[in-house]
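Q: Give me the 3D complex with cytidine-5'-monophosphate.
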Amino acid sequence: MVITIDGPAGAGKSTIAKLLAKRLGFAFMDTGAMYRALTVKAMRCQVRLEDADALVSLAKNTHIDLLNEPGKPLKVLLDGEDVSEAIRSVDVTNNTFYIARTPGVRHVMVEWQQKMGLRQSMVGDGRDLGTVVFPKAEYKFFLDADFKVRCRRRIDEMRAKGQDVDEEALAKDLAERDHQDTSRKVGPLKQADDAIRVDSTNMSIDEAVDFMFLRIHQK
Ligand code: C5P
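A: Here is the predicted complex, encoded as structure tokens.
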């Protein structure tokens, strides 16, 4: 069984998808982490990020895996190396746009994700899972929240990790990412027609997980 959760950055997708997966005993697939991991490789190999052909060839020669171990955070493996921390840097976050907008790269990513979906039951989070990757998923959710609340959550998350935050710059980056994600030609952020919309603006994480869990068990 595949359950998809799409939505904009900062809506709480990863946290909620992880908890929902745990509760259902499913694997968790963080597709944003896969785009980020390829960005790490492109930056390390000094591939020109505007060079679509080079990015596609890089993707075809890369192995990205997501390791779900009971009771441990998801591990993101780039050619066997654990890059779970490296993928969260600000530079990687801002450069992932180049990887995500390249149609040939998305094609490779979608194939990897579909193969993972065949291996096990899972909850996946991303931008195009309900529309492109798993159009026949058993349950689809589209998770959104007010822009200001999404900014606040990101700020709190970074501060909790002891990182310095420039609130204005963060809001600008988030708005820019929203624009890039919704306006790209291939695999844009979009609610699938048959997805259930969840507005988490006034919901706690647990409330959102409960809501989805109940919807899955009601049908
Ligand atoms: O979800 P997260 O913010 O970690 O994703 C990082 C970036 O990867 C997003 O800004 C988005 O552009 C891209 N992405 C994507 N398609 C997905 C998941 C993420 O284009 N399915």
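A quick observation: The two ends are 14 Å apart (CA to CA).
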